[in-house]
Amino acid sequence: MNLYYLAAAAADTEAPVNEFGFWKAMEEGGPVAWSILAVMIIMSVGSFYILFTKYFEQAKVMRQYKSVQTSFWRAASLKEGATKLEKNSAWRQLADDAVTAQDHHSKMEGAGNEIHFVEEELAHSQNTINQALSGGLSFLASVGATAPFIGLLGTVIGIYRALINIGIEGSASIDKVAGPVGEALIMTAIGLLVAVPAVLAFNWLQSRNRRIDALMTDFSNNIVSYIGSNGTIKPTAAAAAPAKKPAPAAPAKK
């Protein structure tokens, strides 16, 4: 009997179990914490959406450049070469703008040197393409710059609420402080998890855009050289991939 009463007394004197975790932290944070979490989710989803869409867009532009190397410069004229490029592509736009610039220059009086006129038109066209390729990257930069501070705001609010609750309970023991403060730091961690991929994606996509811009500059310079030399100066077209030879037939058995 004595053992029974001792066990019951020990159970009554046990410290209450504190519940910790992400959802508990969100419940303690209230509407502010849920609002900040919703903003973080929107930022993260938007960042990955831009990452994948811009990657496929850039990959398409780089893939289309192969047709410039293999077919465009094999044509007898710029107009014929432009028809061999894929419609609604950056390279087709540059080629069409060069042809249009030639036509406009021939109809304008006092337009100056034809080469300079074409160069200006190609530079304007290239800037337009670069702006289209850079669309959405400002969102990634904004997410990378602001997400940690939004998470820090959630942490500050969480710590404030935790300290208020600790003051109301009148206990500042380590078990009362460590849990709520640790939960509040979750928001800072979420902010970093959102910001780091956005910054990495921004830098990577920017480097690919610079590569595309260099290719377009080279293509524009080749067009200008072609026009200035009346078609005598142009890069050597890359040879098309040879067709695979069919495997030789097996000799008939006698």
How would you describe this structure to a colleague?
Helices cover 75% and strands 0% of the residues. It is mostly helical and 254 residues long. The longest helix has 49 residues, at 22-70. It starts with a helix and ends in a 26-residue tail after the last helix.
Q: Radius of gyration, rounded?
A: 33 Å
Provide a count of the helices.
Answer: 8
Structural class: mainly alpha
**Helicity level, as a percent range?**
over 70%
Q: Distance between the terminal alpha carbons, to the nearest Å?
A: 104 Å
Order of helices and strands: HHHHHHHH
Ranges where pLDDT stays below 50 over 5 or more residues in a row are 3-17
The rough form would be described as rod-shaped
Q: Which percent band covers the strand fraction?
A: under 5%
Q: Report the major sheet.
A: none
Counting DSSP E segments of at least 2 residues, the number of strands comes to 0
Summarize model confidence as the mean pLDDT: 80
